[in-house]
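Appendix C reproduces, verbatim, an entry submitted by the partner laboratory led by Prof. M.T., so that reviewers can inspect both the input and the predicted structure.
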Amino acid sequence: MVLLFPFALYSQQNLSADELFSEARNAAFEQKDYTAAIKLTKEALEKAPDYTDISVFLGRLYTWTNDLSSARAVFDGLEKKEVRDEDFFIAYASLEYWNDQNDKAIEILNKGLEYHPQSEALLLLKGKVDFNNSNYADAEKAVNTLIRINPKNTEARALSIKINDFTSKNAMGIAYNFSHFDKQFDDDWHIVGLSYKRVTPIGSVILKGNYANKFASSGTQFELEAYPKLSKMFYLYVGAGYSNDVGIFPKFRSGVSLNANLPKSYEAEVGYRQLYFSNNIWMYTASVGKYYKNFWFNLRTYITPDNDNISQSYTGTVRYYTTGATDYFAFQIGTGISPESYLSNLLENEIYKLKTFKIGGEYNFAVQKTNLFSISAMYYNTEYLPKTKGNQYDFSLGYTKKF
């Protein structure tokens, strides 16, 4: 071994800068040995001090090991050399973004985009930094530019949905739903809903008022919902409602969910929904979603335990986005009744324990960004009595004005 050591040292000393760079990357990515990777990278730079890719990699290594002063020294040196490589701007801006220096990150990204205006990586990072810095208009502009360049960019699509909720301080909406039953009920149902949404620094708040005509009787309901942000990853859904017209609506309803924006464009939710008519009905919900190119896939379940059995509802949804965050086609299929549906008043009679199949579609589109329209249709085949089924046809229209 003593005899071999000088030969090994001699061999390493005679490696080219490219060979040392390759070994450094292997040490970092395969062996997770950042100390060795830094040493090899420095040796490579001694042989090729103007090799920009190696310098950028050294800056990244210092960033990953939380040696921020050394990382900034590397990137500052490259900036003084007026380096224009795309990867340099990405690495430098990422350092500042990960360490909550958003203004500095934006300065670097803006300069990088002057040289690389079509860079998907720079535009995506700018969207993230602007969104984190509450510069929603700039974030939307960056992400929309990216989507025009590559409509199938999954991360951009997921980010555009998040940004969309914050691009206007206010939104007012109206929705109408019509339901026709071939057997279960003699009268058609009509439901009209009004909503006002206000975006606040901690999340959005929505006030709703609903009017329904069911069973040839009328009723009203008032609801309040909020989506407070907890962190970059987590936010809550909190909702409550009241109606004095029990049977048309539940007297009380409430719900809380914890939502997570997960890596690789996944999202998840877990929570509960409660309805009170003459007794409480507790439902526990969970969902998982995934953005993939122009698509959004979601699977949601509602579980309702009682003394006899556990009732279950499952719904699968697929959206195909055509352009922006509010322009999409949707397809839905599932079983059971959810507490958010227009059929929620039927849960009082435990119809949800019988078999229900549903399938439908929806089309949403925007006109001049601030006028949002929705059209949907849903078909239900419901076992409303044991071994007795009927059909239901739902049609809905909606309009929202953002300002």
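Residues 170-402 form a domain with the Porin fold (CATH 2.40.160.40). Additional entries are available on request from the coordinating office.
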